[in-house]
Amino acid sequence: MKHALVMMALLASATVLEAQSGPNADCSRARQVAVGSERRVPADSAAGALDFSAIDSREKAEELFRRGRLEKVFLFPLELGGADIPPNTLYVPAGVVALKAGIENDFVRPLMEKEEVTRYSARPEYQGDSFIPIAITIRAYDPGEFTCTINIWGEALVKEERS
pLDDT for 114-148, tens place per residue? Predict the structure, then answer.
């Protein structure tokens, strides 16, 4: 475990982050996930009605955060050596922070403890000029592989409905 956490801390600066659709993921419901699997986590049903197209700057996102309409999430978790700095910070609708933490704690951490994975990335995906990600893909890998996408809003939810 210590080796894996040190490795993740060393990789913090090289972490690639991606977000996809609303705050939902199959990973949150699956209790056993085999290394090499990929899961999608759906957001709650209200997420489909969200539209953050007009939030096209950090300043607008931070204002919604101050008003309690968005939450702050870190791409590389602070518990694993991430920093509270703008390049590591995303603003997301309520529920995404807890969902991401659940995936990291329930799936990624156990794989790291068993040394089935030693690297981590969280990659946001955006739509148009919006500063709010439509999805976040979490990936733990080397030597195994675990991938989970959290769909938050917009096109990511439309893609999810089609599949």
Answer: 999 999 999 999 999 999 999 999 999 999 999 99
Q: What pLDDT shows up at residue 152? A: 94
User: What is the predicted pLDDT for the residue at 50?
Assistant: 85
Note the residue count of the chain: 163
CA neighbor of 70 nearest in space, from 28, 10, 130, 145: 130
> 26 to each of 23, 44, 154, how far by Cα in Å?
11, 12, 18
Tokens of 146: 């675990």
Tell the residue number behind the tokens 């995906």, with chain if given: 125
Contact (CB, 8 A) for 133 and 23: no
Residue-range domain boundaries for the chain: 2-162
Question: What percentage of residues in the chain have a pLDDT greater than 90?
Answer: 63
Give the CA diameter of the chain.
Answer: 43
| H/E stretch holding 75 | none
